[in-house]
Specification:
Two copies of one chain form a homodimer. By secondary structure, chain A is an all-alpha fold. Chain A contains 13 helices and three strands, in the order E-H-H-E-E-H-H-H-H-H-H-H-H-H-H-H. The first copy, chain A, has helices at about 5-10, 15-25, 40-55, 60-70, 75-110, 115-125, 130-140, 145-150, 160-175, 180-200, 205-215, 215-220, 230-245, and strands spanning about 1-5, 30, 40. In chain A, strand 2 (about 30) and strand 3 (about 40) form a beta hairpin. In chain A, helix 3 (about 40-55) packs across helix 4 (about 60-70), helix 5 (about 75-110) runs parallel beside helix 9 (about 160-175) and helix 10 crosses helix 13. Chain A starts with a strand and ends with a helix. The interface of A and B includes residues 79, 94, 97, 99 and 103 of A. The first copy, chain A, binds a DNA duplex through helix 2.
Chain lengths: ~240, ~240
Amino acid sequence: MISIKEVTKQTGISVRTLRYYDEINLLPPAGKTEGGHRLYGEKELKKLQEIQFLKTLGFNLKEIDDMLSNENWDWAQGLENQLNYIMKEKEKILEIESTLKGLMNGLTIDGKIDLVYVNKLIQLYKQDTEKRKLYKEQYFHSHDSELLDLLPNMNRNDPDTLEWIALIGQLKQHMNKGSDAPEIQRIIRRIHEKTIETFGDNEGFLDKVWEVRKSPEKSREVGFYPIEQDMLDFFEKAWDIFMEN
Amino acid sequence: MISIKEVTKQTGISVRTLRYYDEINLLPPAGKTEGGHRLYGEKELKKLQEIQFLKTLGFNLKEIDDMLSNENWDWAQGLENQLNYIMKEKEKILEIESTLKGLMNGLTIDGKIDLVYVNKLIQLYKQDTEKRKLYKEQYFHSHDSELLDLLPNMNRNDPDTLEWIALIGQLKQHMNKGSDAPEIQRIIRRIHEKTIETFGDNEGFLDKVWEVRKSPEKSREVGFYPIEQDMLDFFEKAWDIFMEN
DNA sequence: GTTGAAAGTGACGTAACGTAATCTTGTATA
DNA sequence: TATACAAGATTACGTTACGTCACTTTCAAC
């Protein structure tokens, strides 16, 4: 029989917690002193450790109570249920992660966020997975699919995607200058280099991408991140100037 | 100005929620009727959608209030903070997933769970990542590392690992029979086949694995899942019998 | 016996509503 | 226009797993 102080010292668990576990009858003390102070034995210490461990697995106290007090608890089933629950949580977290990265990238490019618009995009994106695939197959051939994966994806932030985003963001920032301004032309040159690095000489593929990119509807259909019309026009003009030299 | 009923119909948000948002001053109605019924305008509808969207990103209502009412809110910083938070949550979830899978596999093999023991194993495992690597390098050569990855890992549940676990679990189940019993020998044969399938003719590597496996200390050092001594002895005997025929 | 630390018992606060009870308002119909 | 019934208002308790007072009592050392 050891005092509550000993228990907290050995386990790092607070007095309040032990009191609460007593209150909800999850872990009553082995006994009490005359004055009413709680006393714990070896068995209680072990149970306490079990409780702590099960908590790290995401079970709540009610479930833990069931598991530890019911002698015929079906551990296989219980663990599987918990794993299912955890997998759903994981899905949610991964989606949040992806959306947050997309928002941050969009912020870099556009300099602002229209939450309602973004939300609509996301809902649309979630709904039409099947349709989007069909459209992609319509505009691109199957042997283009590897190349499609190389296009910047707003929901990632690998270094490659980040550079594309940085470049587009810089273009947008300098749009007030003429399309032949040296800053613009420097950015275009870097975009040109990076295009060659990434896609080599697949001109046919790039032409198709550009065709889709220039059409807001087609872009939406295949799930490209929306870029405003004047930005696209500006880019095309600057690109043509670069190509002339 | 539309009624609360219209709002719930359009957004799917409950009356209670709207009342709560009014109460905490996150989204006060645009006005009220003479009798005190809440009325909302277009602006409020939009804000409501924004709130809902930000909630899906894991922000709490206090943060959302800050974001939407503070005109100079630093979105880049706010999103990055949230992403950091989410990444930590993801880490936790992944760890839980791995532990749960390990527990389920352990349950299949041993038929029971000693929570305190498993917890100790996990704590040990977390602490000594560095040491474990050193021990592995000591017992195995660098060119064995790919083969080490092929060994069953308790924290996964790919089909391969699952078959190893099922086989070991079946062995354990029939341990009361003699090591030359036909059931046992069938299982050993399958283990033999699978060993060849997986590791080919790397006999040297398998000898080293078996050497570590047979020593409880070495197994602990490199992080192998602990298997009881009598089980190991039983397996070795059955294996020898199989090899004689 | 004194005294200071440790423990006891309430009780409130937390986040974001759900739910129930009771009362009032809005509106469609007779 | 009186009435009935749906919809809304207010109030308040429940939820999870404790943290944090405030105040009182017990324990252990001197």
